[in-house]
Amino acid sequence: MDFTPTEEQLLVQRTARDAAERLLLPKAAARDVSGEFPVAELKELAALGLLGVAVPEELGGSGMGTIAYSLAMMELGRGDASVSVAVSVTNMVAELIAANATPELAKQWVPRIVSGELIAGAFGLSEPETGSDAAAMRTTAVKSGSTWRISGSKQWITSGDHAGAIIVWAVTEPGAGHKGITAFVVPGNAKGLTVARLEEKMGLHGSSTAQLVLEEVEVGEDQILAQPGGGFALAMMALDGGRIGIASQAIGIARGALEAAVRYAGERQTFGQAIIKHQAIGNMLADAATWLDAATLMTLRAAATKDAKQPFSQHAAMAKLFATERAWQICDIALQVHGGYGYVRDFPVERMLRDVRAARIYEGTSEIQRLVIARNLLRAQ
């Protein structure tokens, strides 16, 4: 399969790179300290078409597909990981609604999400006591006439306190297992929806992570995605695509860290020469560069497979596993190359190491990716 980017896809990449250099990099360190949510930046990225890269043009998106989205996420991750998280989830939400809502529901929500009118989208799947076991969720939706009333809580919701549109998964048929779960589009300002707490995290300080509580939140029958009982399949499909985005984000963070390490190693002198000329340092950077190239190729392969409308779950899981695990190692190497300076906030690699750590957890932990990969291997027998 040829997944060499086209000129149009490279244009999206250049647009994202310029935005990262101009909008994100100059504020990344300050945002890490302040924790300010990037409202203004998201609006500017929306104006550039970066909140709906794979969303059809008729719904306000760029219609450029998954390879272009992956390339854009790499650039934004390099600029500011916190902002790229909000961009990733918003793209995922917009794409999921565009592909699975009725035409009326899609027109109601998607253009407002990708234009930045609604600031961000949120993905309300995880719960406090279920984590990766989405089929064990406890949030329920009970039908009352022509409406549904949703009650429960959601945990680890990226942009949950700022999102204008939230996809919420709830049990609509108790006892039916994963076949009894339905996905709803819920307004961020819905009556009965509250933010219970905001998490204080190790990294990604400019990305808010909320616990949401829903108490008899009413939504109409027309706010269901796909059909009642089809929510679990939608979640798994969306997570497959989301893994490409997180792999791309991790690659971007790692690339920024590697660039910083190479630059520092070329300038820092010990024993009469630049430290990059010492074999111990050069070997670490050589490994990092090799891993980064491999992760990039694996991720673009997954993106190309998705664009070709072929089964891509295995490629996405492999890309997410390899890219995020290696990105953590690359950032650790970059910090080590900086020595003591890498451990202080004056240098960006300290922030990058903290930011990239979450990539091995969200959109499915590394352990879940290995489980997915192994199961797919068994099915292939």
Provide a descriptive summary of the structure in words.
- With 381 residues, the chain is an alpha+beta fold.
- The chain folds into three domains: 7-119, Acyl-CoA dehydrogenase/oxidase, N-terminal domain (Butyryl-Coa Dehydrogenase, subunit A, domain 1, Orthogonal Bundle); 122-229, Butyryl-CoA Dehydrogenase, subunit A, domain 2, CATH 2.40.110.10; 232-379, Up-down Bundle (Butyryl-CoA Dehydrogenase, subunit A, domain 3).
- The protein contains ten helices and nine strands.
- The chain has helices at 7-34, 39-47, 65-79, 81-100, 103-114, 231-267, 279-307, 313-338, 349-357, 366-379, and strands at 121-124, 140-144, 147-158, 165-171, 181-187, 193-198, 209-220, 269-270, 273-274.
- The strands form three sheets. Strands 2-3-7-6 form a four-stranded antiparallel β-sheet, covered by helices on one side.
- A hairpin with a 2-residue loop joins strand 8 and strand 9 (273-274).
- Helix 6 packs antiparallel against helix 9.
- The longest helix is centred in the middle third of the chain and has 37 residues, at 231-267.
- The two termini are 23 Å apart.
- The model has no long low-confidence stretch (mean pLDDT 96).
At CATH level 2, the architecture of the largest domain is Up-down Bundle
Rg computed from alpha carbons, rounded to a whole number of angstroms: 21 Å
Provide the succession of SSEs. HHHHHEEEEEEEHEEHHHH
Q: What's the CATH H-level homologous superfamily of the largest domain?
A: Butyryl-CoA Dehydrogenase, subunit A, domain 3
Terminal CA distance reads: 23 Å
Largest sheet: 4 strands, antiparallel
Annotation, overall tally of beta strands? 9
Task: Estimate the strand proportion.
Answer: 5-15%
Number of helices: 10
